[in-house]
Design goal:
Rubrerythrin, domain 2; 2 domains; single chain; 9 helices; three-stranded antiparallel β-sheet; alpha/beta
Length: about 280
């Protein structure tokens, strides 16, 4: 059965004072419901989660098909809408998946061990203290990954860049003449932004996965921008009423599923020559 590990909507117990944390800027609000907008960063109430102690992410080892990653700083804004559409399509097709909004998790900057000594960049990663080791395990366990990103300065979000930097230990397996964990898996990419930079962002994301042996699904990139001539406050209404966003996002998901179901990964095992920088 499909499974999702992230909740977009939150609820509070009536008449009970509750703490709420903005996942974007860490602002804390006390009340029975989150504020309509964050007074610090202007994020909507959908970016608030109940205030509680953070628990380190772990992977339970249960197999699943698609790892769905929302790399935007705003988990429930425009990029999140594309991820919602992707999730709906995975459910409709009966494909097992796990969804994660990176803004809800702790991913440290890469220590860049490789730049000191190539063999120091090892798998498992030398930094076991954050949530990234669980993501490493899920990348290895899943058959495909679908990654969504906003456009920040003509490129991916900083959170997603940290996530991809931390996959270096998986890529470096090939350099150390060890068995890779990701070759032959399938990738799809979703990009959403206010203005320019969609293709640049998509290709920079895919370059990371290509270096780990992932195969981009045919027609495996969907992107949509609104335009710099419009105020960014109008973006949400535009995207949610745009038929192209719906059709293209669900199309990418279907294409990823179709390629994944060909079971290419096991057929390519031990047949590929790792050419990776």
């Amino acid at each position: 059965m499909p499974s999702s590990t992230s909740e977009i909507k939150n609820s509070a117990v009536p008449n009970q004072v509750t703490g709420w944390r903005c996942v974007v800027c860490e602002f804390v609000f006390e009340g029975v419901a989150p504020p309509k907008g964050c007074p610090r960063c202007s994020s909507t109430s959908r970016e608030f989660v109940p205030l509680k102690d953070r628990v380190k992410l772990t992977y339970d080892g249960e197999p699943f098909d698609v790892l769905l990653i929302n790399g935007s700083t705003h988990r429930a804004n425009n990029t999140g809408y594309m991820v919602d559409l992707a999730e709906q399509e995975l459910i409709a097709r009966g494909v097992s998946y796990r969804r994660y909004n990176l803004t809800e998790y702790t991913i440290d900057h890469c220590w860049c061990c490789y730049s000191m000594k190539a063999e120091f960049c090892t798998y498992p990663c030398r930094n076991p203290s954050d949530d990234m080791p669980a993501f490493h395990e899920m990348l290895a366990a899943s058959k495909a990954v679908i990654v969504a990103s906003s456009i920040n300065w003509n490129n991916m979000s900083a959170r997603l860049k940290d996530f991809l930097d931390r996959t270096t230990c998986m890529q470096n397996l090939f350099h150390l003449n060890k068995q890779g964990l990701t070759q032959g898996k399938i990738a799809g990419i979703l990009i959403c932004g206010h203005e320019d930079g969609a293709i640049t962002t998509a290709m920079d994301i895919y370059l990371n996965f290509q270096q780990m042996g992932y195969i981009l699904a045919p027609f495996g990139i969907a992107f949509r921008t609104h335009g710099s001539q419009f105020n960014s406050s109008t973006d949400a209404e535009f995207f949610r009423n745009d038929e192209m966003v719906i059709a293209d996002t669900k199309g990418v998901v279907r294409n990823v599923i179709e390629l994944m179901q060909l079971e290419i990964e096991p057929r390519l095992k031990d047949k590929l020559v790792p050419v990776s920088e």
